[in-house]
Amino acid sequence: MSQSTLAAEIEDLWQRYENDEIDAGTAGADAADTLEAFLDALEAGEVRAAEKRGGEWEANAWVKRGILLNFGLRETEPREYGDVRYHDVLPLRDTADLGERGTRNTPDGTTVRRGAYLGADCIMMSPSFVNVGAHVGDGTLVDSADTVGSCAQIGANVKLGANTLIGGVLEPVEDAPVVVEDDVSLGAGCRVTSGFVVGEGSVVGENTLLTPRIPVYDLVEEEVIYGELPPERRAFTRFVESSIGEHDLFEGGAYKPAVVATSLEQETLEAAAKEDALRE
Structural domain tally of the chain? Predict the structure, then answer.
């Protein structure tokens, strides 16, 4: 099925679903076939929840609608994952194709939901989770206790440090999800949420929270920005003075978190090269 045909069928199902003409009990075999073809296209990387156009990341609203339809037009069923019995509308992704593409998912806890894309030569360490609609590029490391949320777009050769959370943005459908571009390294314990974009080649220190509500003090361009970390930056958390510190309850002032971004230093590049050597 071509992408244009698939998009048209998803949009038609969406209109019928929104108008209460169909639900999980009445959708029928044709709708089920469309939803299966849609999930196959996501897993093959043929469609994505967001793409970069004209230098900006934009959501593909019809793709996000297709994911929502897979929740709205499917019944919850009992399923099994090893010795674990669970209940969900979606099964887990079949991972039989990963080995032939050089992708590894270590045993005892790597979970990939149906409709997620994993590129070639990826590594998924236990326990980690990749949700429906997520796109993980070639050569990326998803480390232990990591979560890649629904629709998150992760580039190629990215390192997600242990216990990192990449948030998902499924609704509203017009909003772009979290994006981590190519060659980014996120330190252990990082959190990236609410459609934040981490620019290509950046290195982010441990336990850094990246969200549009926290300012990024970019010392390279000498400006304060929100919602993105420019490419080729080294970023880390610092605390800056807050205006609420003027309140009598805050003796000695009050502070709020911020992100400081500087240019990548040579030793940072050398450290990243050592990390690549270890992975190889």
Answer: 2
